[in-house]
């Protein structure tokens, strides 16, 4: 902060006014970074699920997403969640070997013509996923 007096303001008077009105301000600016705010809260954010359905019978296929709350990267189940994600995996009918993928899920989806593709992914943060 810069305090400037213009005109014939004596230095002593300017110092007195500054001390009177600005002495209570902190010496350093508050830290408003996301990390410091999260550290102050020390509370896990709430997972709020939602549902949106838009039906359009003119389309030849449906797009479906299923989301669940994951785990944070500091959670003891983090690596279990990564293994689960790898087990579900990704599959796409357009791949040449789509019918011969190793997972039971991809084989079942392929044999029964249930989908064109599916994928799983997980994004973990410091407090949730």
Average pLDDT: 82
Shape: elongated
By secondary-structure content and strand pairing, the structural class works out as: mainly alpha
Strand order of the largest sheet: 1-2
Characterize the biggest β-sheet.
Answer: 2 strands, antiparallel
Instruction: Specify the helix fraction band.
Output: 25-40%
- The percent range for strand residues is under 5%
Number of strands: 2
Roughly how many Å is the radius of gyration?
A: 29 Å
Distance between the termini: 41 Å
Given as residue ranges, the uncertain stretches (5+ residues, pLDDT < 50) are: none
> Count of DSSP helices?
4
Describe this structure in words.
Helices cover 30% and strands 3% of the residues. With 129 residues, the protein is mainly alpha-helical. The chain has a two-stranded antiparallel ribbon with strand order 1-2.
Protein topology:
Elements: H1 11-22, H2 34-41, H3 78-88, E1 91-92, H4 104-111, E2 117-118
Antiparallel strand pairs: 1-2
Give a summary of the structure in a few sentences.
This protein is about 30% helix and about 5% strand. It has 4 helices and 2 strands; from the N terminus they run αααβαβ.
What keyword list fits this structure?
4 helices, 3% strand, mainly alpha, two-stranded antiparallel ribbon, 129 residues
């Amino acid at each position: 902060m810069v305090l400037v007096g213009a005109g014939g303001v004596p230095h002593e008077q300017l110092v007195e006014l500054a001390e009177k009105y600005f002495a209570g301000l902190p010496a350093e600016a508050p830290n408003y970074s996301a990390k410091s705010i999260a550290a102050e809260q020390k509370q896990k954010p709430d997972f709020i699920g939602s549902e949106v359905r838009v039906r359009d019978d003119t389309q030849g296929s449906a797009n479906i997403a299923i989301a669940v709350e994951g785990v944070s990267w500091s959670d003891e189940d983090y690596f279990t969640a990564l293994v689960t994600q790898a087990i579900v995996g990704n599959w796409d009918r357009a791949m040449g070997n789509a019918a011969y993928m190793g997972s039971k899920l991809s084989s079942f989806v392929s044999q029964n013509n249930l989908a064109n593709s599916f994928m799983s992914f997980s994004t973990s943060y410091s407090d949730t996923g």
